[in-house]
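Lecture notes, continued. The same structure-token format from the folding unit now serves as the input rather than the output. Read the line below as a description of shape only.
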């Protein structure tokens, strides 16, 4: 991508309404645009990052047998009445009515949709287990949206729902998804800051689990076991004085952002819709369920909160919109065009700064945008590339061939 053709632009000004680091940097760098409080447009660069995040999640969900679907965001009132949540969740539901008097909600979650969907296809124990997931926009009536894209009224989420013939089968799958989530956060560079956290199970089970990423930007408080490093959410700490895993009573207190959650729903939603299966004995039994969520746009903001400095964003390689930022400082672009073509031919994603602007603007924008590798070509580089990794101070001169070979060797090691 030539930067001169990118329709978005960077900005030096800071939106005083946005106090969070993630919103300030993503807005200034042109990754997102604010439509209104709690609602943002993903611009081309932001969309690329979210697609990279989705790609990682999709791979891990497929590995545990998830099958991707896409369910409607517009949901009928009748489905929510079946579960009794049309009235009990009125504080977060956006409710709509058409000219004929039919009522709907914009889905904050999809249990009321996925259960009757799966009911069409599951009749026997032979049809179980199964799991379906989607990437879908969710809508929640946040009265005070804040923290940029960490807490919004509309957001992109991956939600998966699993269906089982027994609690023991659900338990086994739940553990598999827990490990898949750990893999996801590791691949995004969040392994060292993200903790499996015990939370209230509500009406479903004794515990549910959250994945909480430690950062001062977080709204949650978690207590991290000093022995086994599992965590407890503040909401259940008073009734869980010791670690549920190792019984230790010593904890570190940290602020955090919830980036994922998993629940054992049991038969909470299958019973209202009479989602049943015929067991081997010939008896009808309710299907046992689990659900597993990850907020993609929230992850976008969380990664920025973790990976930034006073100059801008520092994207982990796995989610960066482009691997390399090629910056031409020569008066003509002949040599830079040749290198740009060579990088593309080598299948290295590259943003090529071919703009006619000052050296200072180009370098400042490179730091703000935060791509993993900065490649400068100019009179002082004598036909080579000055290669600098975003988080490093040192630079080195390499030929285009050396950089390409190094990149491919690095990819093999992943």
């Amino acid at each position: 991508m030539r930067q001169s053709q990118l329709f978005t632009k960077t900005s030096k000004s800071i939106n005083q309404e946005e106090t969070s680091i993630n919103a300030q940097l993503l807005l200034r760098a042109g990754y997102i645009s604010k439509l209104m409080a709690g609602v943002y447009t993903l611009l081309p660069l932001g969309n690329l990052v979210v697609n990279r995040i989705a790609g990682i999640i999709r791979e891990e969900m497929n590995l545990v047998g998830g099958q991707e679907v896409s369910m409607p965001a517009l949901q009928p009132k009748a489905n929510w009445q079946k579960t009794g949540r049309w009235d009990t969740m009125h504080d977060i539901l956006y409710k709509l009515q058409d000219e004929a008097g039919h009522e709907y909600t914009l889905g904050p979650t999809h249990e009321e949709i996925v259960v009757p969907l799966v009911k069409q296809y599951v009749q026997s124990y032979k049809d179980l287990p199964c799991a379906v997931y989607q990437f879908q926009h969710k809508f929640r009536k946040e009265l005070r949206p804040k923290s940029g894209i960490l807490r919004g009224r509309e957001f992109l989420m991956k939600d998966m729902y699993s269906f089982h013939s027994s609690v023991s089968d659900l338990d086994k799958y739940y553990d598999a998804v827990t490990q898949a989530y750990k893999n996801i956060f590791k691949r995004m560079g969040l392994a060292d800051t993200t903790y499996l956290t015990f939370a209230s199970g509500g009406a479903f089970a004794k515990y549910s689990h959250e994945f909480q990423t430690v950062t001062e930007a977080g709204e949650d408080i978690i207590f991290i076991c000093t022995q086994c490093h599992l965590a407890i959410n503040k909401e259940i700490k008073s009734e869980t004085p010791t670690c549920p895993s190792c019984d230790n009573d010593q904890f570190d207190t940290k602020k955090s952002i919830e980036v994922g959650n998993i629940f054992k729903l049991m038969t909470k939603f299958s019973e209202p819709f009479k989602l049943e299966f015929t067991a081997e004995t010939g008896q009808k039994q309710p299907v046992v369920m689990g659900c597993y969520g990850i907020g993609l746009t929230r992850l976008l903001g969380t990664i920025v909160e973790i990976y930034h400095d006073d100059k801008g964003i520092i994207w982990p390689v796995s989610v960066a919109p482009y691997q390399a930022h090629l910056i031409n400082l020569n008066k003509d672009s002949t040599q830079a065009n040749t290198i740009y073509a060579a990088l593309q031919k080598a299948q290295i994603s590259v943003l090529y700064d071919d703009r006619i602007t000052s050296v200072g603007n180009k370098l400042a924008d490179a730091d703000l945008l935060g791509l993993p590798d900065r490649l400068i070509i100019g009179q002082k580089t004598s036909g080579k590339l000055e290669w600098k990794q975003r988080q490093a101070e040192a630079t080195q001169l390499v030929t285009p061939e050396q950089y390409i070979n190094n990149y491919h060797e690095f990819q093999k090691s992943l």
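Point for the exam: The mean pLDDT is 95.
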